[in-house]
Each structure stands twice: as C-alpha cells, then as structure tokens.
Amino acid sequence: MSYEQFLQWVPKLKNLEAPGAESQLKMAALERLEELQSVSLEKNTPKKAAVMMYIYPKNNEAHFVLIERQKSKGKHSGQIAFPGGKTEPDDNGFEDTALRETFEEVGVPYEFQEIIIEGTPLYIPPSNYLVYNYLAYYPHKQLNFNRKKELDTNNFLSFTPQIEEVKSIIEVPLSEFLETSDSDRVVLSTSYMTEVSVPCYRLQGNIVWGATAMMLSEYKVLMRQIVNK
C-alpha cells in the first residue's frame, strides 16, 4: 500500500470507533480467554502502560514498526511488541506515555508522531498490566528532509533502538499485515506457560502473538472497514 493511499485513510479512521474487545479476543489463546472472562480489574489493581502502532513511509510504502525485546527476567522477555512501556508520574495521560515511549525506545521524534485513534485497553494477566494502545502516523506525505539526523542514507526514517530494552527493530509493510492470515497458530513455551497453542501473525519472519497480536487484530478489523466500503 502506498503511503499516499494510507494518508487518504486517516480522516476515515479518525471517524471510526475502535471495534472493541471482541476483535482482540480472536487472537487470544484459549487459556487467556478463560482468564480474561474471570478477571476482576478492580480487585487486581493493574499497573498501567501504553504502546503505539506507528505507521510511516518507506520507499513510498506504508510501514509500521515492531520491536524485539531484549532477553530479561521479565514476563515478556524476548517477545515481539509495539514500542511502549509503563506510565511515569510526569506523563500527561496515556497518549503522552505512548508518544514518550515511542521516542525513547525507537527514536521517533514527537513531531513525527500524530495519534489517529485509541484502541481498546487490554489487560495482560501474566504481568498484571492494563495496556492503553494507539494507532499513530507520520502526518506528511514525505519525511522532513531538513531533519537529517532522523533519516538514514536513503532518506528513510532512521530508528534508534534503546539498547537496554530493544534487541532489534522490525519494519513491517502495512500491506503484508493486512494480507496475512488470521488463523495461523504456533506452539510456544514461556516462563508462565508450557507448550500452549496460540494464534499468531507471521510478519517479516517473526512470530507475533499474545497481547501484541490481539491489539493488531483490532486495528486490522478497523482498517478492513475502510477497505470493504
């Protein structure tokens, strides 16, 4: 998909409502579905975080960025995710958290980010986080060539990973995501589950599952509303 075509989608996306939790749950493992149905957020008092699906131009095509997290002792060690993280006391709301974390984790300047729509907040039981998520984009047809330090030698957006948090940057063509299967599955083991079959997306050779796949599912449903009109 050309970036110019995606820019034509933006006003339409802004006029839509987030499809809701049902569109996320189709990419949830059976065990997670059962857990989410019985959870009490009031009782669990979850921590808060925010992430961003950031869409930008590369080779005149619309792409979005994912990250591979560094190996750690955390629940989501080594997983594929959106840029994002926990809220800080100085953040002016969850949007601000998502903007700040996208700058800190992958180096996208604030002025290169504009939020289109907020997705449905998603609770993640293993880490007890309630994650607010946003669809955002670079709000111009071309990158600002006066901002050379944010561009690489081909005048593409140059991502700068936060080494402590980010092992690698994954750039995904939006068209690849919109065309990828919603019915793929993989058997995984993590620190909190063993050999569980989970729904997943396969993007740029990476397996995307769990909360990130669930949030992606909602944004795919959202965009398909425009494609199908």
Descriptive terms for the model:
single chain, 229 residues, alpha+beta, eight-stranded mixed β-sheet
Largest sheet: 8 strands, mixed
Order of helices and strands: HHHHEEEEHEEEEHEEEH
Provide the CATH architecture. Alpha-Beta Complex
Question: What do the pLDDT scores average to?
Answer: 90
Shape: globular
Terminal CA distance reads: 17 Å
Number of helices: 7
Number of strands: 11
Q: What is the CATH T-level topology?
A: Nucleoside Triphosphate Pyrophosphohydrolase
Count up the domains: 1
Structural class: alpha+beta
Would you write up a description of this structure?
The chain is an alpha+beta fold and 229 residues long. The chain has a single domain (3-179, 211-227), classed as Nucleoside Triphosphate Pyrophosphohydrolase. The chain contains 7 helices and 11 strands. It has helices spanning 3-14, 21-25, 30-38, 41-44, 94-106, 174-179, 210-227, and strands at 47-58, 61-69, 80-81, 84-86, 114-118, 122-124, 129-137, 166-173, 185-190, 193-203, 206-209. The strands form 2 sheets. Strands 1, 2, 3, 4, 5, 6, 7 and 8 form an 8-stranded mixed sheet that branches. It has a 3-stranded antiparallel sheet with strand order 9-10-11. A hairpin with a 2-residue loop joins strand 10 (193-203) and strand 11 (206-209).
